Amino acid sequence: MHPDRRPIVGGNWKMNTLREEAVRLARAVDEGVRSMARMEDGSSAPPAVPACEVVIFPPYPWLLSVAQAVTGGAIAVGAQDLCHKSSGAFTGQVSAAMILDAGASWVIIGHSERRHVAGESDQLCGEKLQMALESGLRVIFCVGETWEQRSAGSADEVNARQLSAGFRAVSANQLERVAIAYEPVWAIGTGRTASPRDADEAHRAIRAWLASRYDPQSVQGVRILYGGSVNASNAVNLFARPEIDGGLIGGASLKPTEFLAIVAAASESPTDAST
Ligand code: PGA
After folding, report:
1. Number of helices (H), then strands (E), in the chain
2. How many angstroms separate the CA atoms of 136 and 85, rounded?
3. What pLDDT score was predicted for residue 48?
């Protein structure tokens, strides 16, 4: 964790939960984050700003119900994807305006399940990023290599290619509304996590890529999250690395106690380059 960057923990629920369960899960996370914030500032109410930014990403149909269930501002709500166009003949797609109208303020773009299962190109992810930023959404933009690419020594190159296409039209002013999630494809949902050292190195390479395009001050503020089989036990060591500014959590975000333990790890993490 870097002292100047407020960490983010995102809960990507993927295609899980029915409505009632989604609302219950959202309330449990919201209540847990509020009580953490109260403990941080030592008082009862009103809650302080939590040390960690928490965003939950339910499936589209539950966005409105979830956003209405967590209106206190302790946590934010986001969508798992969006359409690259603003409206029209795009059957099955959801626009940025619809996401905002449902009460969500964030969106995930370029998740590996969109790139590899739905076949989204680097170019399309770039168009989606532009649409999200022009519409006023905040974004977690995902990049990551497959195991074959890592074994071939081309992980940094793959990430740089995804970033180049994604950030093609992103201005320095827009950069503050984007966080990047480094999610190695081989670590997602597999129980196999990148070592804190390897993840930290990949994050450094991503920041170096940003530094080749943007001014140093803007780049310094960009949060780079790690995603891929993060759980309550490995989060502490991952978040202790100076370049890991939080996490994008899949499976563990469906269990409120585990997810809140990850949020606590991000909120309390000291910077320790030795792990
Ligand atoms: P996982 O998913 O935590 O279940 O590995 C992470 C993600 O897909 O963002």
Report:
1. 11, 8
2. 14
3. 54
Residues taking part in catalysis: 111, 183
Asked if the model's pLDDT at residue 89 lies above 60, the reply is yes
Residue 160 has pLDDT above 80, yes or no: yes
Please list every protein residue whose CB sits less than 6 Å from any atom of ligand 1: 12, 183, 188-189, 227-230, 248-252
CA of 251 to the centre of ligand 1 (A): 6
Report the C-alpha gap between 247 and 239 in whole angstroms.
8
> What's this model's pTM, rounded to 2 decimal places?
0.94
Cβ atoms of residues 101 and 127 within 8 Å: no
- Of 6-10, 21-25, 33-37, 234-238, the range with the lowest mean pLDDT is 33-37
The per-residue DSSP string of 148-200 comes to HHHHTT-HHHHHHHHHHHHTTT--TTGGGGEEEEE--GGGTTSS-PPPHHHHH
Identify the residue whose C-alpha is closest to ligand 1 atom 3: 250
Distance 216 CA to ligand 1 centre (A): 30
Among residues 222, 30, 49, 258, the alpha carbon closest in space to that of 140 is found at 222
What is the distance between the alpha carbons of residues 146 and 29, in angstroms, rounded to a whole number? 31
β-bridge partners, 11: 56, 249
The structure tokens listed for 85 are: 């166009």
Centroid of ligand 1 to alpha carbon of 228 (angstroms): 5
Q: Is the pLDDT of residue 143 over 60?
A: yes
Residue type, 245: D
Which two structure tokens, joined as six digits, stand for 23?
A: 């609302």
Structure tokens at 45: 């109410």
pLDDT attached to residue 46: 47
